[in-house]
């Protein structure tokens, strides 16, 4: 019989290595991942030489540091941890990717090890450095992948101190809370002034007046829902005694209602631009009564259409509850025992299948670019059509001169939607980037 082929690998576990929570109690251990590549299905003998405090595991397919119990096929027995030489005979298949995990027995300890492999065919070792970013929420060994997009929950959740009143919160939370109140007061005053302005019958002789009155109301509702959303996230994190049913309804409804009012307001402003363009196109034949009748129908139909495009969001929204274990330092100091404390957390998540995610992205672009294009093209049409009519009526100036005059008079109609699109770009990027 031919002599077995020998392969070896040696390394150290130090502060340069990655760390993971092996016991799921927020105690971290250094680890190293080695990919095993085998050419045939056969038994392979591994001789592991190590210093005290080293443990070895073999995983099939991959190793997930967030869930270290998944895919494990070979685990070193705890009573053998002090032995400096271990021998394993393992049957490995060539079609399966195997991962060998070397880790420390004690938290943040440092050690070294070497591996010798014997088989009838060569076996190769390849060290793996996991540089991926895990898009997850939850505690160790109890995680869930986040959907695409960054929400207010993601931004504030880790900044809010649990079971602490507002005056004990961080400076960041206090500043954002103050800003949210200021935004609400300013929005309330601005919307109230707009509503009082367009309540006047003289300002509602055409459909534009109705659109602007409805926009004043939706602006007030938008800033109100944003304020509710902010304080819902902060208060539910500070006070963990809130009933789960309240959390579930809030997670499913608040974000959707906020988007409804926001999209409704942007489309109402687009309707104002379109009607102004139509009035320039029709001229003296523009029918004011018909314009008001159309405006009433559009104001009524718009929210129904918008709800139809975002109705999927509450269907896929849910509250993810998880527990994080931690050691109590007070208990350890008093009697020397390691007492495990359990903290319960929750997270509002919206997780889509890939097909729904593609649809959601398309709807996002429609609600962002649709009003922008309507405002832009309507403004350009007003400038070009007004210049053309003036050029026909006033022959002393050329069409280009009239066009320049109309641009100077109405250029804010072109610049303002561009500024709004620029300001909305971060929201679009945040909505499209990974949940990480």
TrEMBL record:
One of its GO terms (molecular function) is G protein-coupled peptide receptor activity. The keyword Cell membrane applies. It is found in: Cell membrane. It comes from the Eukaryota. It is a multi-pass membrane protein. GO terms for cellular component: plasma membrane. InterPro entries: GPCR_Rhodpsn (IPR000276). One of its GO terms (biological process) is neuropeptide signaling pathway. The keyword Cell cycle does not apply. The chain crosses the membrane at residues 28-47, 171-198, 210-234, 294-312, 362-384. Keywords: Cell membrane, G-protein coupled receptor, Membrane, Receptor, Transducer, Transmembrane, Transmembrane helix. This is G protein-coupled receptor.
